[in-house]
Amino acid sequence: MHDIIHDLAQLVGGTECSIITTDHPKISNEKIRHASVFRSVLPQILTSKIKVQISEFLCNTKKLRTLYSHLPVERKETVIDLLANLKYLRILILSESEFDGLPSSVGSLLHLRYLDLSMNRLIRRLPRSICKLQNLQTLRLYACVQLEELPKDTWKIATLRHLEITSKQEFLPKKGIECLTSLRSVSIHNCYRLSTLVPGMQHWTALQKLSLIDCPRLSSLEFDLNSLISLETLEICNCSVLDLSGRLKKKDEDSLKGRRRLLSLIAGVNYRKEDKREQNEGGEKKEDGQQGLQKLRSLTFVQLPKLIELPYELKNAASSLQCLSISNCNNLSSLPDWLPQCTALKKLEIMKCRKLSSPPGSQDGKDYEVPYIMISPSQDELKELVQKKTLYRANTVDLDVLTEESSSLNEF
Q1: Residue 12 domain flag
Q2: 206 within a domain of the structure (yes/no)
Q3: What is the distance between the alpha carbons of residues 223 and 199, in angstroms, rounded to a whole number?
Q4: Higher pLDDT, 25 or 137
Q5: In total, how many domains does the chain have?
Q6: Are the CB atoms for 197 and 177 separated by under 8 Å?
Q7: Using an 8 Å Cβ cutoff, are 226 and 202 in contact?
Q8: 3-state secondary structure of 185
Q9: What does the H/E/C string look like for 315-355?
Q10: Does residue 387 lie in a domain region?
Q11: By C-alpha distance, which of 25, 121, 29 is closest to 72?
Q12: What global pTM score does this model have?
């Protein structure tokens, strides 16, 4: 942060904000509303006496609204004291702490909106009283590797909008987080035992971001991602046995990583041409149900050996697509005819697609390693690209152009 911005923030915050450090563990004003605790000495120098002093000072600030502790809390008793005295907390951040359980008194923080317990390696369970927090909007449980399960009454937190979890559960509760229809973002990280999600998640119609990362046993979603009509970002990484399309025969060979504002899952990487459109009873043509694609801005395909051609349904996104990235799709043999219609396209990136990028007759496979990148391509350039049978002659990157255009790509 620039010094000027820092000074401005202090001026605006006035006496209601305070920064507490371990070398000066005092609060200048008992009427403060927002406090951050920083560790300014080495961990081995930090004594229990200093920790007790900080805890006592915080407990005396009865009107505290925000507590952001960069100092790991190691004793459950300390948390109990804080919760007993800080009844008006709106934001509580105790990340990287090492207490083994959250006290049931957390249910008395009726004004709490943001609770961050991420990267706590010891916490095993959450009290059921946490489900009484009817104003809670954000719950972060990322990297809580010993967490056994979510409370059964999690569905009662109707106001919850952002959820990050890491747990040892094999199945998520059927009457659980799928009932949280106000959710805007869900991140499921490092759930090594999780094998499936629940069908009811299709009711997350307000969901804008879904992340599934490092869930090696997750084999199916059990719901149609196309029902998530507000989805803007889909990120799936290191879920090696996950079958998204339902048509792939060798799941263990496939890996999909979708990211960057993907508004609807492209479920059919093995679409046949005769499946592109269906006829209804009246003889009218109808599209194959990818209704969210009109808002698709960025699309990434990574490691899809079954991908021979891009699904026809992606044509619906031609007017909105801004970034298209394809890599490690060795069976992709051609680019779609509708590519020149992507008038909003700012970046096209193709990497390690053997059939598409190798020169005719090449067998050593070395040339396909060279990335092919186009920045803000024109319609004529895209037409020429589609007509080519190989990208070999165009396997160059103009670094000057990349430098000039980099500012327009920051959002990606």
Answers
A1: no
A2: no
A3: 5
A4: 137
A5: 1
A6: no
A7: no
A8: strand
A9: HHHCCCCCEEEEECCCCCCCCCCCHHHCCCCCEEEEECCHH
A10: yes
A11: 121
A12: 0.66
